[in-house]
Amino acid sequence: MIDVVMPQMGESIVEGTLTKWLKKPGEHVERDEPLFEISTDKVDTEIPAPSAGTLAEVLVEEGKTVAINAIVGRIEDGASAPAPAPVPAPAPAPAPAPAPVATAPPPPPPPPPASDVPALVNGTPVPPMAEDAGPLSPLVRKMARENNIDLSKIRGTGAGARITRHDLEAYLTAQSAPAAAPAPAPPPPAPAPAPPPPPPAPAPPPQAPAPQAIATVPTPVDVPQPAPPPTPREPSREPAPMPGAAAAYRVEPMSTMRQKIAEHMIFSKRTSAHVTTVHKADMT
After folding, report:
1. Helical (H) or strand (E) element with 146
2. Rg (CA), the chain
3. What is the pLDDT of residue 130?
4. Whole-number Å distance between alpha carbons of 150 and 128
5. Which residues in 61-113 belong to E strands, given as ranges?
6. C-alpha span between 13 and 67 (Å, rounded)
7. Residues 13 and 42 sit within 8 Å (Cβ to Cβ)
């Protein structure tokens, strides 16, 4: 049995919260494969398995806070299994009569090296990790396994050409980018408009009647009255609507890091002096 302990992620860190188990009891785990996630007041990270084997038992449930170097689980590596009892050697049989010598068949070909056989994760072949990729973080290994990425095809941009999480995200974005859509064909030209019909021939003007004597009667003239000035409109008292519709919201629990930051800020306000000093000077 190999004990899995809560690591110390810094000199001032004395405890950590186990947020999630990435493996369940009875599942096989490889060495350096992410085993569980922790959260402290300084960092949230994944903890790799110290050895290859089977996760035998989980001693700390998710969401519990334990001190550093506390045992959180155990891995069965198979080395502690009891050795089988020795089988007594059978009594020597009498030597048989010499038989004609037969030609021995050729030996079978040696099995291929383990490095050439791709590993299987949930029945899916996983491309081998590049030997010249340098040291890889547990997060980079996890993303490469989940997306079946051959790290030999990625050029690292980190220190010493190390492959980082941003390199994997850029590679996945480039692989999933859709091909540019072809330009649409120009629309067919519109048909020319038909010529307008010719205008009708003008009718002959009617003949004016003979003039007659008409008495002239004065007509009263209406003098236009000036328009009244416009009444000023009372400004609306309704508040102006906010731009955009009301967005939906949800309540998320605070992480361990944010809880520690809030506690330290309140502790600083209680212990540090908060003083406002005002000086007046007559410059006349």
Report:
1. helix 138-147
2. 45
3. 45
4. 7
5. 65-67, 71-76
6. 9
7. yes
CB 129 within 8 A of CB 151: yes
Stretches where the chain sits below pLDDT 50 are 83, 114-122, 124, 126, 128, 130-132, 179-181
Nearest to 35 by CA among 70, 62, 13, 10: 62
Q: What is the pTM (predicted TM-score) of this model?
A: 0.36
The residue count for the chain: 284
242-262 burial, b at 16+ Cβ within 10 Å, e below that, comes to eeeeeeeeeeeeeebeeeeee
Where on the phi/psi map is residue 71: left (φ > 0), alpha (ψ -120 to 50), or beta?
beta
Instruction: State both tokens at 68.
Output: 């550093």
**The residue type at 283:** M
Q: Is the Cβ–Cβ distance between 126 and 30 less than 8 Å?
A: no
Cα separation, 162 vs 135, whole angstroms: 7
Q: Which amino acid is at 83?
A: A
Strand partners, 126: 119
Using a 10 angstrom Cβ sphere, with 0-12 exposed, 13-18 middle and 19 or more buried, the burial of residue 75 is buried
| Token representation of residue 173 | 């974005």
CB proximity list for 134: less than 8 A, separation 6 or greater: 156, 160, 161, 162, 163
11 DSSP 8-state letter: T
Please list, in sequence order, all residues whose beta carbon lies within 8 angstroms of the beta carbon of residue 172, skipping any fewer than 6 positions away: 147, 149
CA distances from 226 to 100, 219, 233 (A): 141, 22, 21
